[in-house]
Every structure is written in C-alpha cells, then in structure tokens.
Amino acid sequence: MCCNCVEFIVKYVLFFANFVFSLAGLALIGTGIAVLVQLSEILEVVPSAINGIPIAVIVLGVIVFVIAFFGCCGAIRESRCLLTMYFVCMAILAAGKIYLVTVIFNGLQTLQKTVEGWVENAFDKREAFGVLEVAVSVHFIIFNIYQRPRRRKK
Prior knowledge:
The protein is mostly helical and 154 residues long. The protein has 2 domains: 2-95; 107-154. 85% of the residues lie in helices and 0% in strands. It contains 5 helices and no strands. The longest helix is centred in the first third of the chain and has 44 residues, at 2-45. It is elongated. The chain crosses the membrane at residues 12-37, 49-76, 83-108, 128-146. InterPro entries: Tetraspanin/Peripherin (IPR018499), Tetraspanin_CS (IPR018503). It is found in: Membrane.
C-alpha cells in the first residue's frame, strides 16, 4: 500500500517539475526569437556583434525543452527508454557543470584579469557620458517608450 503511494507521488512530482521546466524552455525559445527580431533596431544604435546571444538563448531553450520533455513523458507514461534518456542527459549536464566549475576555479585569477581588461578597454574608448547615452538609447529601443503613443485619460 505504502509503496504504491510513494510511486504515485514520485511519478507526479517528476512530471510536474519537468512540465514546469519544459514551459521554461519554451519561454527561453520565445524570448530568444523576440530578441532576435528586435535586434535590428538595437544594432542601429550600438554597433557590435551581439547576434550570437539570442541564438545561444534559443539553443539553450531547445536543450532545456528536450530534456524536460524526456522527463515529463517518461514519468507520466512510465517509459523506461525515455527515463533512461532523461537520466543520461542529466548525468551529462551534471558532469559538464562539475567540469565547468573546476575550470573556472582553476583559472579564476586569469579570468578576473581578462574581465578587468575588457571593462577598462570599454571605458577607455568612450567617455562616461557616451556609455550612459548608449545605455539609455538601448533601454528606450527595447521597451519602445519613444514609439508608444500616450493616451490621455478623459
């Protein structure tokens, strides 16, 4: 009796958790596509190569969605194949996280110096007012504040 109850709880907790993560993956995909569409307006103000960021967000969203889909469908249908794929994907992600933390921890000094150099170079090329002007311009473009007509209350 108790074993069936535990299996039922684990099954639906795994299902709902992966359902939420699959929705989050879809949200990442949608956000990446929306940013990619709006990117042309931002590139008019800020001349830089930032096309890779929304594409990376879309790819990350697809990966999250596929892994969560394996877990969600595997849990609800009790499919051994889908749950095995889910486990393999989660094991690969865990190993990748451990590797990334190890690499970052070992190269923390050089990483900090590199980032400090990037920041110093960014502010050496522009004076403070120019950086502020670009930031405000990007903010206005992203939120379409200057394009939105204001409606007066009657």
